[in-house]
Design goal:
By secondary structure, the chain is of the alpha+beta class. The chain is built from 12 helices and 10 strands. 38% of the residues lie in helices and 17% in strands.
Length: 378
Amino acid sequence: MSDNNLLKNIFLQAKRTSKILDVPLTKAKDLIARSIYECHDFRDLSSKLKNNGLKASVYQYCKLHPKSAESKSHVQNNIQLLAERFSRYLTAPLTQMPLLDLVWKIFGFQNQVSLEQILPSILLDDWKPYSPVSKDVDSVIYCDIRINNIAFKVLAAKIVTAYMFADSSLNELLALKHELSRYKFAPIMWSTRLSWENEIEAYFGAIRRRGTARDSFFDRLVLPKTIHQKVFQDTLYEAMIALSQEFAGTNIRYCNFGRETYFAVGFPIFAQTASKQCSDFYLSCGDIRNGKCLLCLGDNILALELFEVNADGDFIGDAEHYYQTLSFSLQLFEDATKEYVMIDGKHYEAYIRSCTDAEYALYKNPAIALADNFLEAQ
């Protein structure tokens, strides 16, 4: 490939950078020169390219093409290094997913990054019906995992949302969404999917015939069918109340799998009660972000909430009320116990919860911006 073609390729990389970061092309050129090619600026890069002065370790980047499997492999093998270089010139805080996505897009590749590649991932095929409350229908499912040698049970309760019935008309969905808003929390689907579909069709039929729906038609479906389901639901709602009070500025995010939606919580259990085969995760202090570690569940994020304790098991943080209410509610679940997770010499009472809309947006889809003084950054 001639020098002109190589320079044209570098120009395309800079142009993509300009559009992604919404900065002038001149700044994007200098950013590319410094972060990818380890040059002082774009003029220095052009001069070294012309005079065969580029380092051998970076020369390959100006030959990459988005339709080449070899180019894709080269980016994959070097993406962590490139991401670290770019991070020096971007505004903090930064998370891995958008940073890696930026690197891929600069070289012309699309949709190469997923949560599973970045966060510890709970496998979707490890889930089973939670028999204490869900023998006949899969209203609640569970998965056992180990985190730093401590066993956890993760429970996911299927809930009813308007978007489960997305084939309906917009007006019908709006009416259904309004009906569901009467409940403090999204109802657990204690009845079968077919039962709900039949009731929803009758509900829409009433609207079409009379212009109004039946009053409280959901109630018999929403109510738990057994005392064990009632106890489970009350316990789950206690946890949801604790979370909604702590994260009042945002919403607790449900876990979505196609048209099925779940609310997830998790708590420590005795090792002997855990499933024989379960995934192991080993976390270090580098995985801790604002007092929590993040786990991946499909395209969803779960938070491992960490409450540091002293040698006597007493909480030593500054969120006493949140710790007390969340710990109390989750300890009410069957098999729950207090087992402390050790991470780099510190002990934590730890619980798993759904993340919030704010956490999800900040981790997965944050805006990335070029630092104002990026030319001064090292």
